[in-house]
Design brief:
Blueprint: H1 2-22, H2 49-75
Helix pairs in contact: 1-2
Length: 123
């Protein structure tokens, strides 16, 4: 059921993006004053604005509802965990290294700093 809802959600999102992209902007009505508006009468005298606006509203409502349904289903899952938690597979019965297994630092730091190669006495 969940994969079906995810696919439906993606299809609604793609259709909503497509509907928004094919709509004319508010400034496109100025072109109608200069004679280009007569060719846009496929959807009637009002044009396609009301149909596309209604379809966009319906798809936006469906997108909102599908988002809420997916959120509900994902919140009901029994396995809880963070996205940032990464667990590496452990081979056999090995345990991860503890503080006792880490290498120790030398007790005394060296007294003279090491010179970089090629820097011996040249300035």
């Amino acid at each position: 059921m969940l994969p079906f809802l995810i696919v439906l959600h993606i299809l609604i999102a793609i259709a909503l993006i497509g509907l928004v992209l094919i709509q004319r902007g508010r400034g496109a009505d100025i072109g109608a004053a200069f004679g280009s508006g007569a060719s846009q009468t496929v959807f009637g005298a009002r044009g396609s604005a009301s149909f596309l606006t209604r379809a966009t509203g319906v798809l936006a409502a469906l997108f909102f509802i599908s988002s809420l349904v997916l959120t509900y289903f994902y919140s009901q899952r029994t396995e809880r965990g963070s996205v940032t938690e990464l667990t590496a597979p452990v081979a056999g019965d090995e345990t991860p290294a503890g503080p006792a297994d880490l290498p120790r630092l030398p007790d005394e730091p060296s007294s003279a700093p090491e010179e970089a190669p090629g820097q011996s006495g040249q300035q």
